[in-house]
Write a structure and sequence with these properties.
The complex is a heterodimer of chains A (about 80) and B (about 180).
Chain A: E1 11-14, E2 18-26, E3 29-35, H1 45-58, H2 63-78
Antiparallel strand pairs in A: 1-2, 2-3
Chain B: E1 2-5, E2 9-12, E3 19-20, E4 32-36, E5 44-49, E6 56-60, H1 75-80, E7 90-96, E8 105-115, E9 120-123, E10 135-136, H2 137-147, H3 158-163, E11 164-165
Parallel strand pairs in B: 4-11
Antiparallel strand pairs in B: 1-2, 3-4, 4-5, 5-6, 6-7, 7-8, 8-9, 8-10
The chains are: A alpha+beta (about 80), B alpha+beta (about 180).
Chain lengths: ~80, ~180
């Protein structure tokens, strides 16, 4: 892994189109400003991990769960609304 | 072709119904899936791995109950999906079951995008915004029905039926409504 030291206000460029600026440092927290083409998917890694965990959980289901869900969904669909 | 599934037994599937997911589902290695769409499954389908009989996800089209649900795809994602601008896509959300139906949730932050023309799919990771990984399903349906013009949630889309592999029904013990 390439490790670089930066001060507040300094920038790291990745290729021609991506810039990462250190906006602020407060204790153990670093605020980063990202400049990148709007066409790039940017997210914090923990979001990826969160979705991974949710997938793991979602993969554990059985047919009874599904039947219950279908019945429930159908009922709530038919409920009168005011 | 024959597909083994631990929940539904052996399934006979047309090869044209296989969805290639080059990056798989986040956290899983499996790359090839089919969508099974039971007649009595209401709006729910499931995404079954054809390489791992144990792996299946319950999925639902968020668009059936969230009128404005949408995802902006990146160039990279267009390429992965072999999708051209303006082409039709199918958006699916993974459902997380819970013993209490009120606690069943849909993952709106990690939708699955499918290109029905090429039968390619990808799960997308969205940064925190209005969509959460644990959106309560019941609440979503209630709110959704209010937003829809006729106060009715939508049924499965036509595109969805096209990509689905045929599957008889859930075989509910009690007659499904």
């Amino acid at each position: 892994m390439l490790v670089l030291t930066r001060k507040v206000g300094e920038v790291i460029a990745i290729g021609d189109n991506i810039k990462i600026k250190v906006v602020d440092v407060k204790g153990a927290q670093v605020r980063l400003g990202l400049e990148a083409p709007p066409d790039l998917r940017i997210y914090r890694e923990e979001i990826y991990v969160k979705i991974q965990k949710e997938n793991m959980l979602a993969a554990k289901w059985d047919m009874d769960d599904l039947k219950k869900l279908v019945n429930f969904f159908d009922k709530s669909d038919k409920e009168p609304r005011h | 072709m024959k597909v083994q599934s631990s929940r539904f037994g052996e399934l006979k599937i047309e090869e044209s119904k296989v969805i290639e997911m080059p990056d798989g589902m986040v956290g899983f290695e499996e790359r090839r899936f089919i969508i099974l769409s039971p007649e009595d499954g209401g709006n729910f389908c499931w995404l079954q791995s054809i390489d791992n009989p144990d792996l299946a996800f319950v999925v639902v089209e968020p668009a059936t109950f969230i009128a404005d649900y949408g995802v902006k795809l990146t160039r990279e994602e267009y390429d992965k999906l072999q999708l051209e601008k303006g082409e039709e896509i199918i958006l699916l959300a993974v459902t997380t079951m819970a013993p209490d139906p009120m606690e069943i949730s849909v993952n709106l932050q990690g939708p699955i995008v499918i290109n029905p023309a090429k039968m390619r799919g990808k799960q997308i990771v969205l940064e925190d915004g209005k969509y959460k990984t644990r959106h309560p399903l019941f609440q979503a349906i209630r709110e959704g029905a209010r937003q829809m013009k006729d106060g009715q949630i939508r049924r499965k889309g036509v595109a969805m039926t096209k990509v689905s592999a045929a599957y008889h029904n859930l075989g509910c013990a009690t007659p499904c409504p």
